[in-house]
Amino acid sequence: MSDIKDASDPKLERFRELTKQIKQYEEILAAIYWDMRTGAPRKGIGLRSEAYGTLSAETFRLSTSAEMGELLDHLSQPEAIGALGAIDRKQVEETRKDYERNRKLPPELYREYVVLTSQAESAWEEAKRRDDYPGFEPYLEKIIDFNRKFIELWGVKGTPYDTLLDIYEPGMTTSELDRLFGELRARLVPLADAIASRGDKPDTSFLRGTFDIAAQKRFSKFILTRMGFDFEAGRLDESVHPFATGLNPGDVRITTRYLADDLTSALFGSIHEGGHALYEQNIAPELAGTLLCTGTSMGIHESQSRLWENMVGRSLSFWKQFYPELQKQFPGQLDNVGVEQFYRGINVVEPSLIRIEADELTYNLHIMIRYEIEKMIFNEGLSAKELPEVWNAKYKEALGIVPGSDAEGVLQDVHWSGGSFGYFPSYSLGNMYAAQIMNKAKTLRPDLEERIAAGELAPLKEWLTEGVYRHGKMKNPSEIIESITGESLKSAFLCDYLETKYREIYRLG
Amino acid sequence: MSDIKDASDPKLERFRELTKQIKQYEEILAAIYWDMRTGAPRKGIGLRSEAYGTLSAETFRLSTSAEMGELLDHLSQPEAIGALGAIDRKQVEETRKDYERNRKLPPELYREYVVLTSQAESAWEEAKRRDDYPGFEPYLEKIIDFNRKFIELWGVKGTPYDTLLDIYEPGMTTSELDRLFGELRARLVPLADAIASRGDKPDTSFLRGTFDIAAQKRFSKFILTRMGFDFEAGRLDESVHPFATGLNPGDVRITTRYLADDLTSALFGSIHEGGHALYEQNIAPELAGTLLCTGTSMGIHESQSRLWENMVGRSLSFWKQFYPELQKQFPGQLDNVGVEQFYRGINVVEPSLIRIEADELTYNLHIMIRYEIEKMIFNEGLSAKELPEVWNAKYKEALGIVPGSDAEGVLQDVHWSGGSFGYFPSYSLGNMYAAQIMNKAKTLRPDLEERIAAGELAPLKEWLTEGVYRHGKMKNPSEIIESITGESLKSAFLCDYLETKYREIYRLG
């Protein structure tokens, strides 16, 4: 990535300038979004949202402008491509993709959609609070309609839903996901059944109680520091829905949510978002200010959050090192709980209604349900009105439980209110990528578990930086996974990992 | 201000849209500035500054665009003006003023200046820290040169320095300021001399010590709440240099700086910025989103911060109410200090080197020194190189003391590093406006002091809202002062106020 060439071509120079401006506006928008979610005074939010909308629309306008089209046309000519360095070439390619997609949307339609989704997020919050799906349904129906219209404008790839998948995971298709999810189901459902019939449920009583919030904060900060999160290039705050946002590689912000009666919620939330943050903080400096300075796909991004949260953060090796520190933070509360007992407790498997509280194993079943529903919406014309019924039936079928209310059913996730259809599969893709990457790490470094148990997390972080983080968007998801592991994405690594882990925890023999 | 007319004229509609966009960008820039000063991670500041510069330049471009020129030309025609409501008319007038001024600056020159001043602020911080004036001098010389060039481009009004004064206090001139400052000097210097020769210095020993920062924070918040600062429409944070910024009327942010060994620094800082904030929070809702939604001048703005800080916050009536609460916050530390003793302590008069730590009386001498130096720079060609010598000579002459270093002399203030020449007089103008306004308040409501002593600050805030705050930029400074007090700005009110206050405190008979 060192071949940054002189922009002797004035059109190349202008292209760099324009993409940099777009990136800078995105950085500013991310800062404003963070502010609105973490501490902006309530009464200023209305005007702030409007200002945010105006700058968003301007950013969209720049990225779809006639000037951008001309620059891309010029720089995509064979003789021009040949003269480009690797970064410019990739940036032209990626920008062109977004340009082609976005310029198919009439700006007025896009602006209407931005306004709709920004209203819909509040409507969803309200509907969830009041368990009032009918109050949210009209918004959702409109958002679905917009997306159907977008698919039409963008052009159907394979199936209509494929067009949406491609936004979050470039190149991903329903046929590929059907296969991957089918494989997962075939191995994970029997595993979950075996666990359920085993009956020997780990003790989790010690995870409930009253845990000093200040101590929780200290411990989250401590763990993040040990993971290699750079607090001079980021910060940790609180918000209702935890998130991570990379403003630039020197300013990556994560949030979590502390619950006094729950020891693990904020902690694993912090580690999860911390994984996203390690990615964003370690993108190569030469990509800063380009549109390539971001994660390559949501699947790869989730692979890093879930690798750190689960494969590191919920491993016995990790807690062998850090459990005494946790005990120290809550004097008297965990004295009679051994590390093995703690490890079993944080890995209990149980069918549950809420995705973000699900264990590592059943989590994927939650994702499959959403994936199937989204497919039905866009490939089979399922309407917003029918969603609660379909949702509840699928939970009954896959997990054997039915939500007592829409608030803990179809209304639980923020994604659809923002129009993020096609995003959910990223979580399971992330789990699969993570397992495949972690498997490789352990092959290359057989003492990895021991080093983690010794508190040495830096070697893992550095290896992931080398293989994933520093590349930003210079490599596609498939290039990332193939260059690290030598093969394309496989479901088997996740299945193997989960089987090994849970057979041991549940003594399934 | 209720006559908002329909924008049946498409050019009026477009003008509203464009000015709203500029205002929205200014709101976003203010949020980013606040973030950079309060908690943005160190390593992200470089790229953030660049992004900030890009959006600033775009905002400047919008406000000087050919389109803006055409809209203003159209809306300034007699028949168009007649059709405008009061808000539109005033906004056309004010926007035209900025347009005329800004379009005289070549955009490239402006951009260079933005970059220079943003670098200069860091250079100044470093130079101040290291007491290295020569390290800052080249920046300052360039900034002065830019401003000389700007004055030339803008056109000289009266004297060159008048052109700069007009930016911060529309209509203000050196001849007017010479007169006002001359009057102040004639009465305040003898007063300061009388105090110095009195020798009976109030005890201030109890203001030094170790004061719990958490308790200081609680007390600042308590006082702000009682002043009527709306924490649902604002927040209080910490920064190295305290400031107030109104993002929109529903989001006004102030900062202060807590020192463990100084009880009053953060407290009066909070009240000062709180005064600015009351102004911004109480601008009429119908001005939101227009360029009139801001204070009318820096002088009027400072009148509000200094009115609340000094005429309310350093009054005996105020402390009769709030002193017991302060004592409670610092148990054991102020038990033996009576309220009268405390009041005398926080009002000690002493020639000092640092403006922001100066008492109410000598504060104005600090301002006069800066005013005279700025006049010399722009009207007599004084160079950056000569500044330390002139500075020290003026302090010797006016206050009888000489800085031991440039750090506590010519380098003490941030203003010049940002190019804010012509700003300093605002502080003394603020003091004069404040005294004249407060005098009127007491005439209209003879029991004002008693009500303050009873902790009732709302009536004062509401009266100021009616007379000052709600108008935003709909009225000019002279219209504000005349409509409230029935006369133009006079120095006598400030002199009377200070004489009365200090004769009593120092028992000058």
Automatic annotation (TrEMBL), chains A, B:
Cofactor details (free text): Binds 1 zinc ion per subunit.
InterPro entries the UniProt entry points to: Peptidase_M32_Taq (IPR001333)
Family stated for the protein in its record: Belongs to the peptidase M32 family.
Catalytic activity line of the entry: Release of a C-terminal amino acid with broad specificity, except for -Pro
Free-text function comment from the UniProt entry: Broad specificity carboxypetidase that releases amino acids sequentially from the C-terminus, including neutral, aromatic, polar and basic residues.
UniProt cross-references to PROSITE patterns, sorted A to Z: PEPTIDASE_M32
Alphabetic keyword roster: Carboxypeptidase, Hydrolase, Metal-binding, Metalloprotease, Protease, Zinc
Domain of life of the organism encoding this protein: Bacteria
GO biological process: proteolysis
Keyword RNA-binding attached: no
Enzyme class of the recorded protein, top EC level: hydrolase
Enzyme Commission numbers on file: 3.4.17.19
KW rRNA-binding (keyword) present: no
Species in which this protein is naturally found: Cohnella thailandensis
Residues engaged in binding Zn(2+): 272, 276, 302
Protein name as annotated: Metal-dependent carboxypeptidase
Gene3D superfamilies: 1.10.1370.30
Active site: residue positions: 273
A Gene Ontology molecular function term of the record: zinc ion binding
Cofactor(s), by name: Zn(2+)
